[in-house]
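Anyone? Bumping this.
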Amino acid sequence: MNTMFFIMTVASLILLTVVSPDSAFSIMISGANNAISLAFKLCAIYAIWLSVLDIMQKIGMSRALDRLFSPITKRLFKGESEKTREFITLNFSANLLGMGSAATPLGIKAMEGMQDGSEKATDNMILFMVINATSIQLLPATIIGLRASYGSASASDIILPSLLATLISTVCGVLLAKVFSLPSKGKKKEPVSLPEPLKGAKLK
Amino acid sequence: MSQFILPVFIIVVIIIGYVKRTGVYDSFVEGSRQSVKLILEIFPYICAVLIAVELFSLSGLNAYFSRFLAPLFNLLGIPTELCELVVIRPLSGNGSIAILENIYKTYGADSYIARCGSVIVGASETVFYIATVYFSTTKVKKLRYAIPVSLFSCYLGAIFACLLCRFI
């Protein structure tokens, strides 16, 4: 991330200094401004979804959902606690329905549950991120709406190709993540500080 | 039909919550409190990424970079007109929507280019945004193979998107 950030900013700044040095600083400010307006928007959306989530947890709805999906999530995310799996399931459900902004707070909670205290991401965390990053949305509603507003005659004819493309990218992502996680399986550290449910899987 | 799902879902959750005496109001207070905490925690990450993205797209580097990569993308079946979109997609959600709108305006919403662009945007996510935000509250500093795998898979998806749009 540091290298990436360095290359992007420095290369852009050098180009700007040559082309139009006056605008360099104002562009940086406008980037920070975007972040502020995005943060306010997200804060409102998260407030609502975290509230609904709080009720869902209290009435046992998220556990019921977890039981429904556990055959898949248990196999993909071996050794995670039930609590973490609940968040994973809810994150996937929100993503499938195309509610990316509702999925984010759930994803963050799932990540917190999966960390093992070290500075390196665990294989499960990476797998989880990859699934999120390759999109598992069933219906690209925003894009269809956008396309219709630009006068498309059949705005929804992208559903099938989108579904196939996202399926390909997600399957490829999961497979690659599983392949890359193989070498680290052999040299697992002593699971000293791991929470109870993690131990079983790491010792295997 | 689908516009009813969301409000009905929230109504059902709130009613069950009330019937089970969980304190619906308390839940909303708690949810809002958590939201503020979460935003404070992820804001520095969003801010840093968005400064870099804004510089990248407004400095014109994005355009140069896309032009530089165009021959490679063409080889993989991605049309030149979509290179900029493919480059910006993993970096910025708003940025890619803006480019997509431009494509709709220039080529028409039903053209092959527009359909490909729609599928590319609809079938992928903002990889770098997810990478920063999802790990923001954990101690993790090293993402290991997470970003390369995500990017590779998304590009594979984009290549297939352009291929699929020719037939479907």
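Late reply, but here is one note on the structure posted above: Residues 24-167 of chain B form one domain.
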